[in-house]
Amino acid sequence: MPAVAPNAAQRTTFLRAPDATAATAPSAQWWEALGDPILDDLVAKALSGSPTLAAAQARITQARANLAATNAAFTPKANVGASAAEVALPGAFTNDKSRLSKQIYAENFDASWELDLFGANRRRSEAARDRMDAAQASAADAAVSLSAEVVRTYAELRVAQAHATLLDKQVDLDRRLLDHATQRFKLGTVGSQDVDEAKSALAQSESDTSDTGAQITVLADQLAVLIGREPGALDDLVAHPAPPLHVPSTVAIGDPARLLRSRPDIRVAERQVAAANADVGAHIADRFPKVTFTGILGLGGTSVGDAFNPGSLVALAMPQIKWNILDGGRTVALKRNARGALVEAEAKYRGTVLDALEDAEASLTRFGSQRIALAKAAESREAAEHLAGLQVQRAQGGTLSRADALKAERQALRAKMAEISAGGTLTSDFVAVEKALGLGWEAQK
């Protein structure tokens, strides 16, 4: 394999690894760290029932069949045949004035075997095996993407459900604020502007509630399709909300060398390089002579019985050397084409390795940053809740208006929704890290 990213392969940690990560070996079933049995069941169903993975498995079957067909070149070829013919020859062919007319019956068995003297068949077998390995790695890569998409969609669903619960409370607060503003307007203590502002806030909250409900339904249907079911099959998830997912305090990520071994897309590119290299070797071998051994056994004569009479046995053994020295440059052109394909495969391999490392480092950077963002969102929510509590007490004591206390409660709800959103983003970043590490496919074993 071409030497790619030698520094990364030697490092014991990622450059952008945040404090909340560890260089210990991560688990293939990484989603289990989120501690949600429903999610575990959904991922298992996706890995066993997804049409995407079924198609990938079918490509593996095709590649195995192609390997078996290629390996058949190492075995002898045999044919059995029987024939009956009516022969009529003029006297000119028999030195006789009369016309010869005969019936001939024969059966024969022939076998041939090509000696793989220069390794052409062996190299083609290597190429077929490498492509089968690439198909298996491609299926693993599909499993990585699928498991990550299931977790990400499920996490978004739970965040949306948590938002929906808080939005219901916000709608209730906005209605109370509108009632309060309307009463004060009737008393002449506030202008119509306060009423209009309250109406606008209520309308926006009701709109947000409707949008969130639609989002929940869409996400549930997306999950259903991901596990190979029809839309609507997971409506129970819509009817029974659950808390958002929580990322573990410490995430095992391993090291760059492990990533280079684990990511299936790198394995795909690596096997494609090996297959292209084997193709070059096969085309080089095609320039040399081919040695074939052929044997024929036959029985025959002018009657049906002669076709089964050992006395009429005919045997022929024939070694053959064939060297295609003049083909208009076709063999040379095919070899040149194979070398070009090899250069292309090597370039793609290098690009895949570098993209994988960049993906991992970028995912870790975003994950570390979002950890901080979530902590700040939690601080903001705590401050808003503390302030809301104080404002309620002041309103009860008569030193603050009820409207100001309600607005403080609303602000605390908004801060809570912001914290939930930050937690959802952190979960998505966690999923991106695990996907970048190439985890998830071993769950199929």
UniProtKB/TrEMBL annotation:
User: Which is one Gene Ontology cellular component term of this protein?
Assistant: plasma membrane
Q: Name one Pfam family in it.
A: OEP
Any idea which UniProt keywords this protein has?
Lipoprotein, Membrane, Palmitate, Transmembrane, Transmembrane beta strand
Which InterPro entries does the UniProt record give?
MdtP/NodT-like (IPR010131), OMP_efflux (IPR003423)
What membrane topology is annotated for this entry? Lipid-anchor
Compartment(s) where it occurs, according to its Swiss-Prot or TrEMBL record? Cell membrane
Can you tell me which family this protein belongs to? Belongs to the outer membrane factor (OMF) (TC 1.B.17) family.
What NCBIfam families has UniProt attached to this entry?
outer_NodT
Query: What name does UniProt use for this protein?
Result: RND efflux system, outer membrane lipoprotein, NodT
Give the species this sequence originates from. Novosphingobium nitrogenifigens DSM 19370
What are the leading ranks of the lineage?
A: Bacteria, Pseudomonadati, Pseudomonadota, Alphaproteobacteria, Sphingomonadales
